[in-house]
Amino acid sequence: MTETLPQTLAHTPGTRRRAAAATPHALRLEHVSKTFGGGKRLFGRKHHAVEALKDVSLALTKGETLAVVGESGSGKSTLARILVGLERPSAGTIEIAGQDAEALTRQGPRAFGKTVQYVFQDPVASLNPRKTIREALEAPLKLLCGYDPEKRKARLGELMDAVDMPASTLSRYPHELSGGQAQRMAIARALAAEAEILVLDEPVSALDVSVQAQVLLLLERLKHQLNLSYLFISHDLAVVEAIADRVAVMHFGEVVELERAKTLFASPVHPYTEKLIGSAPRLNGGAGAVRM
Hints:
about 290 residues, alpha/beta, six-stranded mixed β-sheet, four-stranded antiparallel β-sheet, globular, disordered N terminus, disordered C terminus
């Protein structure tokens, strides 16, 4: 992967820049824990409890890309699922765009969906195979934004421009798209809801290396254009170093190190972070470097 991510990017026609919110934080977690299982099952047998998250405190600043890294089982995906309302924490508090997450959930899926959106690892599987791309994108425009047909048509054109895809893609089905094209459509669907916070769960891990670079460049451009905030879940340190402003390292459900990306990769403090960076494959050969 040889492309370099730009620091600033020009505004693209068909998209609109959002004004920065008054709150400095897009997300804030305070002492969040999540335990699965526990208690008694049938016939008095006790079910083993698993602590997926242990006293996690994090803050995602407005307009920032905060990467969460760690090996499988470190709690990354559990954290992502909690932030988009697919799981509830066992303890702790969460604020999303300055609002209590529990209160936001009680307002219904429309309020939550217009605030934070999830971009899944498998782009093709995340799209309904029985619906065209047009139908997939129109659903949030209609259900979350309440747009009439004329406004939906105009917004569809804006979304396709935003993700650099031709309008003809709207009539296609997910299985007719490449992995990179499908992920662009999944990103467009998240943007359709007009959420300013995207939780990206391994968004490029299913893509070829050359396509990864294109999608990362797209995400970086959209972040600047629309003033988006990203929580970027990944195990790929090369990708993380390319896109992240800060990095949170998770190990067995705990955040063991949190630092600016450049500082963390240059001089990790925690032994687990040192192990991760030391074992990361070089994209230009060898181990221990993660440059794109």
